[in-house]
Amino acid sequence: MQKIKWGIVSAGRISSKFCNDLIQLEDADVYGIAARDIKSAEEFAKKFNVKKAYEGYQAMFDDPEIDVVYIGTPHTFHYENARDAILAGKHVLCEKPLVVSPEQCESLCQLAKEKNVFLMEAMWTYFLPAIRKAKEWIQDGRLGKIQHIKIDFGYGMKYSPTSREYNADLAGGSLFDMGIYPLALTWFFLETDLENINVFNQNAPNGVDEDVIIIADCGDARATLSTSFKCNLANSAQIIGDEGYITIPHASRAVKCELYRGDDCIDQFVDERNSYGYAFEAMEVHDCLRNGETESSLVPHSVSLKLQIQMNKISSLFTR
Questions:
Q1: What sign has the CA pseudo-torsion 81, 286, 255, 314?
Q2: Could you tell me the keywords of this UniProt record (predicted)?
């Protein structure tokens, strides 16, 4: 089997976690790592046995050996990095959120179509076996009619206006950084837009949102979604119907899901993987590229745009 050659954009923490899983795939060749600082790229290359280190991203984009790039830079650089890679003819897997506005999303997706290259937001949670099993239970009607969906994702962190999370110039804030998970999972499970949205937010001293609660209608169900930098949340998901409910601990990186009827667990699924779980999204990229597809059916451009529109609308309701 011919291997697919990957280039990694940024030698930061998230790129390291992704690469840790990517190197376990037999059909993946982690060919290049690019960073603004060549020393960082060289250290990353040594750690993961990457063939080539580049100083600056464009040098890697211009290398004809690279098939697809993974972008792990901060949110505000995603549009520029992905655009430059697409213009160089590279396929792209870009960390979430894909960009920071609906307009950027539309522009980037249109460019990918014009250049006939693959583009996918790295919504890795969608590909986790436990998440997909939970959706299978929902589609099989095992919960009856859905009444509530409750999802939260948040970790307490010390306020620092210069950190990536709190830096307003880097699109900081809990909604973009962590809130995208509850929003994305709500769409994945129910495939229904949020309506009648109510937002309760608290802001850091520099005005960046650091705690957000969203209550909205989602079809006939009610969604209660939370995200926070102020405290650790339960980081779980519950999908509740009139005949049963599903609970998913640590939903963003789920390894199991449980199906309840009343107080009794009547079914469960446990993923025995020995990895973070990023390999599943990489496998989807491989399948799409080998099939000549420029979008993933699980994370199509339309879903990325939908999430951008939702976050834009929610942030417009913030109290300042």
A1: positive
A2: Oxidoreductase, Signal
Q: Strand runs (DSSP E) across the chain, as ranges?
A: 4-9, 28-35, 52-55, 68-71, 91-95, 119-122, 146-154, 194-203, 209-218, 221-228, 237-241, 245-248, 256-261, 264-270
Confirm whether 69 is domain-assigned: yes
Same domain, residue pair 22 and 92: yes
Tokens standing for residue 84:
């430059």
Distance from C-alpha of 141 to C-alpha of 119, rounded to nearest angstrom: 33
| Residue 185: strand, helix, or coil | helix
Q: In what order do the strands lie in the sheet with 245-248?
A: 194-203, 209-218, 221-228, 146-154, 237-241, 245-248, 256-261, 264-270
One domain, residues 102 and 158: no
Range of 31's domain? Answer: 4-125+277-296
5 and 29 in contact (C-beta within 8 Å)? yes
Rg (alpha carbons) of the chain, rounded to whole number: 20
Digit-by-digit pLDDT tens for the chain (320 residues) are 689 999 999 999 999 999 999 999 999 999 999 999 999 999 999 999 999 999 999 999 999 999 999 999 999 999 999 999 999 999 999 999 999 999 999 999 999 999 999 999 999 999 999 999 999 999 999 999 999 999 999 999 999 999 999 998 889 999 999 999 999 999 999 999 999 999 999 999 999 999 999 999 999 999 999 999 999 999 999 999 999 999 999 999 999 999 999 999 999 999 999 999 999 999 999 999 999 999 999 999 999 999 999 999 999 999 98
